Amino acid sequence: MTTFSAELAAISRTPVTLAVMTLDYCGRTFGVSPCTATGTPCYNTFPTCKLKTAYLKSSKDYKFTSASAPLPFRAGERPYLKNVKYLPTEIKDNLTINARITLVLHDEPDTDVGIDPYVAQRASVQGTFWKKMLARNLNYKGRMMRIYQGFIGLAEAAFQLKWLGTIDNITLSGDEVKIEVRDLLKQLSDIEVPPKLDIKLVTDITASQVEITLTTVAGLDSAGYVRIDNEIIYYTATNPVTNIISGCQRGFFSTVAAIHKAKAKVQKVRYYAPANPFDILQEMLLTDAAIPSAYVDTTAFTYWRNLGGDVNFSAIISEPTKLDKLYYEIIDLIDCKSWVGEDLRITIRRNFPNLPGRSTITLTDAANIVHDSGAVDFNVKSRISRALIYWDKTALGAIDKVEEYNRLDIAIDATAESANDYNEIAEKKFFCRWMRTGYMQDEVLERFARVLVTRHVRRYRDAMPIIQFDVEMKDSEIKTGDFVSVTTDELLLPDGNPLSNALFQIVRRDVSDNIVTLKALRYPARRIGFFAPTGTPAYGSATEAQRARGFFTRADGTMTNNDIGYYFY
Q1: How confident is the model at residue 368 (pLDDT cuts 50, 70, 90)?
Q2: How many CB atoms sit inside 10 A of residue 348's CB?
Q3: Global pTM?
């Protein structure tokens, strides 16, 4: 079989884009038990189903290829794809601007062959492909879209998957349809934790009652927590016949057991039990967002978890909160970045300026950066001179109200704020719902809180410039999130020489024609000290790989060649 790489190397080739849309599809046959529906057949979709109790959810792929190329497979794909426009991922320190694509496809009158399983039973067939598709699949939002690239002559299995995401919106205009697709992390903004549920008390309850009758238990866990007014109640069992929750333990999480009136709102509570923050992040992705594990870089989450240095996090979420807000709160607290990588998996990386064994890619003005393509954003807003963390929040307190917190830790770089330096306060506040007293040693949490704010002030004391520049296709394998060593005259040293071998991280990658535009964030020159193995030479004689570990600094905090020194993480 001809391979993708072989075709890529060919002198003459015809590129083809393949878009695969996966929509829900019923696994039953109309009129065949257990589907006992009668009359005009449905279209095997839930919105057109005539017996929803018999509906069996499965899926069906619809394939579209480039309208400007011949059919590559002649196996039912439709040459409707006019163009695909990409808006790439851009990594920020405590959030990610999610990638999006927009597909424009043609519409045309269609016979329903291969689409409608009962087309032979219809009295007539009319309408266009996309108008009928949307009428039959009203629930397209959130369904998967995959984009592949290949060439005429390649088998479909040899096409390379280049992008995947979920459908956000579809619009029709004349004989064209526009499909907006977003990456997998973006769907976290659609999910509320806990979900809104329409549940109320049926009767008044006392402050000691352990069996409580609700209007419904649909949507509640078999055992878990609910909030009624200002009380959180733990229950051990639900009865979907009587709508009773039982085994209730009143006044949980330091709330007060109280009398509650009939028709009072009952809100499901999401409790994140104490666990490593990297495990909670995976729980959010795999459980709360139900993202398939194949699309999560679990190896990366496990690696950074095992590196250590964290305490267990825990939270009580008693009001519906967007999942992306919860996710990026933790990302910010543990000083990480998270994004969908070019391997199409959600990944994570800690903001370490150096890490033993980590490889970097060398980029220079002379060998890689396209002449006159550079631009610099000095990114002054990235600078922090003091950091505050409010923690140990009351169970039901508002996240952004300082009076709801019992603890406060502060780190301040007084020199940075002095008249001789920046002469201003650049403050960052953390409102941390993820640490509270009682589930582990207070001293451990206190130490972590102090270290957390100190790390942020050390890392962000000075602004972290962002350079944008172009490279040619020979450097196209550079990926979002990669670390690069940059030598460029876009930034100069105090003596006027070009910046040399400075560490940057690629935070955005945009491909257009034969040019790749990169945005790179400069990392602080101050490094973390890791214990070096026996036999490591003195700093002046060490290799760059050896310098990724720790060395003792001089009294002024610098190295023997005046490089900025190390600090302990």
Answers
A1: very high
A2: 22
A3: 0.86
